[in-house]
């Protein structure tokens, strides 16, 4: 009788251990689905410390380059491509984000207007600078890769570097109340020189 | 009968408890930016380390980046050769990050940058051992994930400085390696996958620095 009780207890503990271990293991290897960034303590308003950074009102308005992206993606086609890319994310049923095109930037951004001045300072068009909150997201069509060369490093805009530099960008301005204020995206036209490497021909997207 | 009831009970408990323990499916978030203040310990006590969001002190990550899988016209689809990285680099060295300084955009300076200074231990190209080398990186790359920590030991393949004086690691994470305490070069899963056919690095997760030097020499000489 005692043996049978001991066996039952052991059996119960074993069965208990298995799901417990399962829960713990699954919990440990699970990844976060929470905010990408939260406000820190030195720059942001103290009342927002720890709050997720968001685009104001969940609305993103982007502005595209006036130039062509590449010979096979002239301006209008490139704009459609960008709109399609954004819509992949805004159309997610749970996305609390509205993304719209605000039109075009004031110029064709290229290597001739992203320059180093004689005094060592850097100039580039005003509406893609971090302070250009009126154009919160600038999308640059880097037709010949020279903008990429300038921002990432010499040779980075070459077609041989498309595996990593075809599209890149980042946030460069933040509101003190835990918001994004500006970001810049650069698409290297050297990576879209033929239909076989057009982004349109790819089927998978990631963020 | 009793055992079966227990099993059912435990199965139900797994179903009920597991979702509470799970937290979504995003990729793992990296550590906070180097020039971010540490998260106050009482701020988010319930957050597990892997769940901790980045602390934006600017810069930080943005939420929406449309990226498409890239195929280079000159490289096999989805594979980045070590030769391509070695050839694109203007500077190759191993060293320790000794300082990081944010250089905000100003009226005369349209681009915000981060200055990162390394104390160079071993130089393979374009640097001198013992030198303190400062590079300027566009803030957009930093906020996009190309970050460093003071004290971090790395081996870097850097593009030659641009006309703006900016540079970054070749192919992002592919041009950057971690060094262990013995100075061996550690290859990430991404490196292993892409360099698997390399005659020196293929299949190795850690490589002696001398072997790595050999790999760079071979890659630089190959036509």
| Percent in strands of chain A | 15-25%
Strand order of the biggest β-sheet of chain A: 3-2-6-8-7
- Overall shape of chain B: it is extended
- Give the N-to-C terminal Cα separation of chain B: 73 Å
Description of the molecule:
The complex is a heterodimer of chains A (207) and B (223). With 207 residues, chain A is α/β, with parallel strands linked by helices. Chain A has two domains: 1-30; 46-201, no CATH class. Chain A is built from four helices and eight strands, in the order αββαββββααββ. Chain A has helices at residues 2-29, 75-90, 146-152, 162-165, and strands at residues 37-39, 59-64, 98-104, 115-116, 122-123, 137-142, 167-175, 179-188. The relative contact order of chain A is 0.15. With 223 residues, chain B is α+β, with helices and mostly antiparallel strands. Chain B has a domain at 82-221: OB fold (Dihydrolipoamide Acetyltransferase, E2P) (Beta Barrel). Chain B has five helices and eight strands. The termini of chain B are far apart. Residues 24-53 and 57-77 of chain B have low confidence and may be disordered. The interface between A and B is large, with 96 and 84 residues. β1 of chain A pairs parallel with β1 of chain B.
Short description:
The complex is a heterodimer of chains A (207) and B (223). Chain A is an alpha/beta fold. Chain A has four helices and eight strands, in the order αββαββββααββ.
Topology of helices and strands:
The complex is a heterodimer of chains A (207) and B (223).
Chain A: H1 2-29, E1 37-39, E2 59-64, H2 75-90, E3 98-104, E4 115-116, E5 122-123, E6 137-142, H3 146-152, H4 162-165, E7 167-175, E8 179-188
Parallel strand pairs in A: 2-3, 2-6, 6-8
Antiparallel strand pairs in A: 4-5, 7-8
Chain B: H1 2-21, E1 54-56, H2 82-88, E2 91-103, E3 113-125, E4 132-138, H3 139-143, E5 153-158, E6 176-179, E7 185-186, H4 189-194, E8 206-207, H5 209-221
Antiparallel strand pairs in B: 2-3, 2-5, 3-4, 5-6, 6-7, 7-8
Helix pairs in contact in B: 2-5
């Amino acid at each position: 009788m005692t043996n049978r009780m001991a066996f039952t207890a052991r059996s119960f503990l074993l069965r208990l251990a298995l799901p417990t271990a399962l829960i713990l293991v699954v919990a440990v290897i699970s990844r976060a689905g929470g905010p990408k960034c939260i406000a820190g303590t030195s720059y942001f308003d103290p009342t927002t410390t720890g709050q997720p950074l968001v685009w104001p009102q969940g609305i993103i308005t982007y502005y595209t380059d006036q130039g062509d992206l590449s010979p096979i993606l002239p301006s209008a086609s490139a704009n459609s491509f960008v709109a399609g890319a954004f819509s992949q994310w805004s159309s997610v049923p749970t996305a609390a984000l509205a993304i719209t095109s605000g039109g075009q930037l004031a110029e064709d951004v290229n290597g001739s207007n992203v320059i180093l001045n004689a005094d060592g300072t850097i100039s580039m068009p005003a509406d893609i600078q971090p302070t250009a909150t009126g154009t919160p997201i600038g999308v640059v069509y880097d037709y010949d890769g020279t903008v990429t060369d300038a921002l990432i490093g010499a040779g980075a805009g070459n077609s041989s570097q498309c595996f990593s530099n075809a599209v890149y960008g980042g946030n460069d301005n933040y509101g003190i109340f835990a918001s994004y204020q500006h970001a810049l995206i650069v698409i290297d036209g050297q990576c879209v020189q033929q239909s076989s490497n057009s982004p349109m021909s790819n089927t998978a997207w990631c963020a | 009968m009793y055992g079966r009831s227990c099993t059912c009970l435990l199965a139900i408990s797994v179903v009920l408890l597991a979702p509470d323990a799970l937290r979504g499916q995003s990729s793992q978030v990296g550590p906070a930016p180097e020039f971010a203040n540490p998260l106050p310990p009482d701020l988010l006590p319930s957050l597990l380390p892997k769940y901790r969001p980045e602390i934006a002190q600017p810069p930080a990550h943005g939420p929406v980046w449309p990226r498409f899988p890239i195929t280079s016209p000159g490289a096999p689809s989805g594979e980045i050769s070590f030769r391509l990285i070695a050839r694109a680099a203007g500077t190759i060295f191993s060293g320790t990050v000794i300082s990081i300084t944010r250089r905000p955009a100003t009226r005369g300076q349209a681009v915000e940058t981060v200055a990162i200074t390394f104390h160079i231990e071993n130089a393979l190209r374009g640097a001198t051992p013992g030198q303190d080398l400062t590079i300027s990186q566009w803030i957009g790359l930093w906020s996009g994930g190309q970050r460093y920590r003071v004290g971090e030991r790395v081996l870097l393949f850097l593009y030659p400085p641009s006309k703006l004086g900016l540079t970054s690691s070749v192919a992002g994470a592919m041009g950057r390696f971690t060094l262990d305490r013995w100075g061996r070069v550690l290859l990430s899963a991404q490196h292993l996958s892409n360099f698997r056919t390399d005659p020196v690095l293929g299949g190795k997760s850690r490589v002696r620095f001398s072997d790595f030097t050999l790999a760079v020499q071979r890659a630089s000489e190959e036509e």
